[in-house]
Design brief:
Layout (H helix, E strand, L loop, with lengths): L12 E7 L7 H4 L1 H14 L3 E7 L3 E7 L7 H14 L3 H12 L15 E2 L2 H9 L1 H4 L14 H6 L24
Antiparallel strand pairs: 1-3, 1-4, 2-3
Helix pairs in contact: 2-3
């Protein structure tokens, strides 16, 4: 079993990848409103900044910065996951019940999150927002609706046509697809 080193540094910026146990699921994008609600609620209860986020069908990447004097990213993730899973239909809950027994953290549906990888927001967020293209979900970053890319464009940090277009079948960049 992999043991992750948790680097608890107050006020730090962290990069996280969270995956569903069922890597073939599309639950995260199918339930995007519930996921957004979970993040909003958790942020109201215990503030943190979302520097970048991209939500794919079965996993998501988030860069979050904690307030100074606070290093409890684990508590925030527990809360996000709890709120999100409360909004699942009874059928979805039954489907994920089998997975729940084998989970290290006991949260239905999400796999183990490798905590503690620090990142610089700008460089890693650029890599993260390209993920939908990398996985072949779209040919242009601007075509994926569940990404902080659109906020970057609104704020003038990136042009709408950033990264251009990838031809069909040309997006296999090393991560597994499904």
């Amino acid at each position: 079993m992999v043991r992750y080193r948790r680097n608890f540094v107050p006020g730090r910026t962290y990069f996280f990848t969270a995956t569903l146990l069922n890597r073939g699921s599309h639950l995260l994008v199918e339930r995007i409103a519930a996921l957004r609600t979970a993040f909003r609620t958790a942020r109201k209860e215990r503030p943190f900044a979302i520097d970048a986020v991209v939500v794919l069908p079965d996993h998501l990447h988030v860069i979050m910065t904690l307030p100074s004097g606070d290093a409890d990213f684990s508590g925030r993730w527990r809360r996000i996951k709890a709120i999100f899973t409360l909004r699942w239909s009874p059928q979805e809950k039954r489907y994920y019940t089998i997975a729940r027994a084998s989970m290290r953290y006991g949260d239905a549906g999400f796999g183990n999150i490798p905590f503690g990888t620090t990142a610089t927001s700008r460089g890693t967020s650029i890599t993260s927002i390209f993920n939908p293209v990398k996985h072949g979900l779209v040919s242009r970053v601007q075509d994926w609706p569940h990404s902080s890319f659109h906020r970057y464009v609104r704020d003038g940090l990136l042009p709408q046509d950033w990264a251009g277009s990838v031809k069909e079948g040309g997006a296999g960049f090393g991560e597994r697809n499904g």
